């Protein structure tokens, strides 16, 4: 009797899983599209420039709202990085509240970036209560108010965010501080409501940075000071500030939300822990830059509209390499604002996708066997007059300012490549780096033939090669043109350098593209460490230049060339112009002594080596306690991420994969038994049954090993956990996945409880 009941319950459960999957697939096909009308004026659509910044309280809006003397005082204080006085802060707060409430805002929030890879916010209402005495009686009445004190700072619980031991549970106080450089903006919510967002820093009670923004602002100021000193040595006394600019190309996947809801691994970990790649995925290279699916286009277009309103300058959108993978990219901005806008982009895409019954996946490797996602961080430096210090011009061989900055950057990457590697290390990005779809774990820099020739010629004290004499097998240095040999087509200008998508840090014309940054992570920490390394090297270049010029007012051409030559030679090992995916490069890098850091725990340790400590602490970018806390946060998160994945995988196998296999085995056994009565040979069924039995047993055994390993690792301390997760747990999970994926191929489709790759990706 018990066997019959068990079988009936099992059959019902399998039928429910099958029906849920089929219903999700049908819903995906039948679901009507979501239509959003672009705003109009009269009979025409608003131009993008007219939509841009509608919900941003920028300097122009502030100038219109404040008396001129107050606005001038505010601008002066912000430019001098001085603390705002309370009178000015109250005036700004009042103007911001009136502006925001006129646009429908009822609440405000300090929007900050804890070390979780995302943002945080707590909403407070503008509503407050006042009392007055009337005829001897206290009367309570409501007003809308927003003070300068509320604008300047708020007080979230600091112990509930990652803090690496800086805060304990009973020491909860922390502060968010308004970042006056990044403008306030409005995010619209349901029922016509809106919230005023105040970009903020997040610090502990004792002033330690608990966020990503504080150290980014510090690193930007340190780099600015170093760059300005170098420019002054070259005779530029006009430049007072140099900013780092950033543009983050954001890659992501979009899948149907009904199917997503049937994948516990995607919901909990952001990636598929089991699943067989479909027969066709990206082999034909037909998805990249292909026609954007209409449902996806509707989603991205709506997100772009919302982003434009809050001042995020999204410029491009296109299909990426893998099926259902896409990219949006902005116009470059000052680094801290670009980080704000990148995080806002991720949040808006998430929310808008939900309205379109889609789910956006930012994980670096959500699907095995197809390309993962990155966040290419395009980084450069710009003076306060708008000059790009990484613009080589048409004659880079005589653009000495550019060459000095260039060799400083190469010096920084060479000396601190291990530190830069730590900035992009995570359990999710580990799946992607070096997998013939992303830069390798070996950090190197690519310049292209033209700039390489310039530096080589300076190093060798010879003339730059002349393109006009091809028999000399020379390299072109200036800009060139391509002739298509078609009479109706004009000559095409060719860039100074080609692009090398296998390089983790490639020069791409007037900027460096830091390609190794993960799609899910905040770009802040990689930029912080890059800024820190470059600022130190700029200082070293400036010191060498000052020494070379001696008592002269300005360095001579020979002085400059000698410094360029010195740093070109010392950093030459970091330059690599060929295929970064090849095994030859791994061997060559080893010969050069470049670190090949393959695991995250090993990468995180780069933060604590003496060179890194000296770099970050001496420049005031991180204190000793802040640096140590970040190491502990990173290593703890790595272990937790993998343990969560392992427990999720164990649950998938025991609650889904094995029951599906057992149900199919039962059907086969019943079929074999029924055929005995009619004297039919059941050899085909027996063959399949034997295979299922074999791999079901192997999966059970692998899963039992995984479960035991999880228990063992959970009992270890922090660093030992991370090492064991990287060396043992990932291998055990891969073994379980291998067995599970074999069963997915063998079990009848009607019994498989989870949407397959074919359904998720197509």
TrEMBL record:
<keyword id="KW-0175">Coiled coil</keyword>
<feature type="domain" description="GS catalytic">
    <location>
        <begin position="212"/>
        <end position="657"/>
    </location>
</feature>
<dbReference type="InterPro" id="IPR022147">
    <property type="entry name" value="GSIII_N"/>
</dbReference>
<dbReference type="Pfam" id="PF00120">
    <property type="entry name" value="Gln-synt_C"/>
</dbReference>
<feature type="coiled-coil region">
    <location>
        <begin position="692"/>
        <end position="746"/>
    </location>
</feature>
<comment type="similarity">
    <text>Belongs to the glutamine synthetase family.</text>
</comment>
<feature type="domain" description="GS beta-grasp">
    <location>
        <begin position="106"/>
        <end position="207"/>
    </location>
</feature>
<dbReference type="InterPro" id="IPR040577">
    <property type="entry name" value="Gln-synt_C"/>
</dbReference>
<dbReference type="GO" id="GO:0004356">
    <property type="term" value="F:glutamine synthetase activity"/>
</dbReference>
<dbReference type="Pfam" id="PF18318">
    <property type="entry name" value="Gln-synt_C-ter"/>
</dbReference>
<dbReference type="GO" id="GO:0006542">
    <property type="term" value="P:glutamine biosynthetic process"/>
</dbReference>
<dbReference type="InterPro" id="IPR027303">
    <property type="entry name" value="Gln_synth_gly_rich_site"/>
</dbReference>
<protein>
    <recommendedName>
        <fullName>Glutamine synthetase</fullName>
    </recommendedName>
</protein>
<dbReference type="InterPro" id="IPR008147">
    <property type="entry name" value="Gln_synt_N"/>
</dbReference>
<dbReference type="Pfam" id="PF12437">
    <property type="entry name" value="GSIII_N"/>
</dbReference>
<dbReference type="InterPro" id="IPR014746">
    <property type="entry name" value="Gln_synth/guanido_kin_cat_dom"/>
</dbReference>
<dbReference type="InterPro" id="IPR052725">
    <property type="entry name" value="GS_Type-3"/>
</dbReference>
<dbReference type="InterPro" id="IPR008146">
    <property type="entry name" value="Gln_synth_cat_dom"/>
</dbReference>
């Amino acid at each position: 009797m018990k066997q019959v009941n068990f079988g009936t319950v099992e059959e019902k459960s399998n039928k429910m899983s099958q029906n849920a999957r089929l219903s999700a697939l049908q819903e995906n096909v039948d679901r009507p599209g979501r239509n959003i009308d672009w705003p109009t004026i009269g009979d025409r659509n608003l131009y993008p420039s007219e939509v841009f910044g509608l919900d941003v309280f920028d300097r122009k809006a502030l100038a219109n709202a404040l008396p001129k003397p107050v606005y001038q005082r505010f601008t002066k204080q912000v430019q001098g990085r001085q603390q705002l006085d309370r009178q000015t802060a109250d005036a700004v707060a009042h103007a911001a509240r009136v502006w925001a409430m006129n646009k429908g805002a009822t609440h405000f929030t300090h929007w900050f970036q804890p070390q979780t890879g995302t943002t945080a916010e707590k909403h407070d209402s503008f509503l407050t209560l006042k009392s007055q005495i009337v005829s001897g009686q206290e009367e309570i009445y409501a007003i809308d108010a927003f003070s300068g004190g509320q604008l300047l700072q708020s007080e979230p619980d600091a112990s509930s965010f990652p803090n690496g031991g800086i805060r304990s549970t009973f020491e909860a106080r922390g502060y968010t501080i308004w970042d006056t450089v990044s403008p306030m903006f409005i995010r619209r919510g349901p029922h016509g409501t809106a919230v005023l967002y105040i970009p903020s820093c997040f610090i502990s009670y004792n002033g330690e940075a608990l966020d990503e923004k504080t150290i980014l602002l510090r690193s930007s100021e340190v780099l600015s000071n170093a760059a300005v000193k170098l420019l002054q040595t070259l005779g530029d006394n006009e430049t007072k500030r140099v900013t780092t600019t950033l543009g983050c190309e954001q890659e992501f996947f979009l899948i149907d939300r009904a199917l997503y809801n049937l994948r516990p691994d995607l919901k909990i970990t952001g990636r598929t822990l089991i699943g067989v790649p479909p027969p066709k995925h990206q082999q034909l290279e037909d998805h990249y830059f292909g026609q954007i699916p209409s449902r996806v286009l509707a989603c991205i277009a709506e997100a772009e509209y919302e982003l434009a309103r809050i001042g995020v300058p999204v410029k491009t959108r296109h299909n990426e390499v893998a099926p259902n993978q896409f990219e949006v990219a902005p116009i470059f901005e000052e680094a801290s604002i670009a980080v704000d806008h990148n995080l806002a982009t991720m949040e808006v895409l998430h929310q808008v996708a939900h309205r379109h019954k889609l789910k956006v996946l930012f994980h670096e490797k959500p699907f095995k066997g197809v390309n993962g996602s990155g966040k290419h961080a395009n980084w450069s430096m710009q003076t306060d007059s708008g000059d790009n210090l990484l613009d080589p011009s048409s004659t880079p061989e005589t653009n000495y300012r550019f060459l000095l900055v260039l060799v400083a950057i190469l010096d920084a990457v060479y000396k601190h490549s291990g530190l830069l590697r730590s900035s992009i290390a995570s359990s999710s990005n580990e799946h992607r780096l070096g997998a013939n779809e992303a830069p390798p774990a070996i950090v190197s820099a690519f310049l292209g033939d033209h700039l390489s020739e310039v530096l080589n010629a300076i190093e060798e004290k010879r003339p730059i090669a002349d393109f006009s004499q091809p028999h000399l097998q020379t390299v072109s240095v200036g800009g060139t043109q391509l002739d298509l040999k078609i009479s109706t087509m004009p000559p095409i200008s060719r860039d100074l350098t080609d692009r090398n998508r296998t390089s983790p840090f490639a020069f791409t014309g007037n900027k460096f593209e830091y390609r190794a940054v993960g799609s899910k992570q905040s770009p802040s920490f990689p930029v912080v460490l890059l800024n820190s390394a470059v600022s130190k090297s700029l200082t070293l270049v400036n010191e060498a230049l000052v020494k070379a010029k001696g008592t002269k007012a300005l360095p001579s051409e020979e002085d400059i060339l000698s410094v360029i030559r010195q740093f070109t030679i010392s950093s030459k090992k970091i330059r690599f112009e060929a295929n970064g995916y090849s095994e030859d490069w791994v061997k060559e890098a080893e010969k050069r002594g470049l670190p090949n850091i393959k695991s995250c725990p090993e990468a995180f340790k780069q933060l604590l080596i003496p060179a890194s400590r000296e770099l970050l602490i001496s420049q005031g970018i991180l204190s000793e306690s802040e640096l140590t806390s970040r190491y502990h946060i990173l290593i703890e998160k790595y272990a937790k991420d993998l343990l969560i994945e392992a427990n999720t995988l164990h649950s998938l196998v025991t609650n889904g994969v094995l029951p599906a296999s057992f149900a199919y085995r039962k059907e086969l056994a019943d079929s074999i038994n029924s055929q005995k009565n009619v004297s039919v040979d059941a050899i085909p069924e027996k063959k399949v049954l034997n295979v299922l039995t074999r791999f079901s047993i192997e999966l059970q055994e692998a899963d039992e090993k995984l479960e035991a390993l999880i228990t063992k690792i959970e009992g270890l301390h922090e660093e030992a956990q991370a090492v064991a997760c990287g060396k043992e747990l990932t291998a055990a999970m891969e073994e379980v996945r291998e067995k599970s994926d074999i069963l997915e191929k063998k079990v009848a489709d009607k019994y498989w409880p989870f949407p397959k790759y074919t359904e998720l990706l197509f």
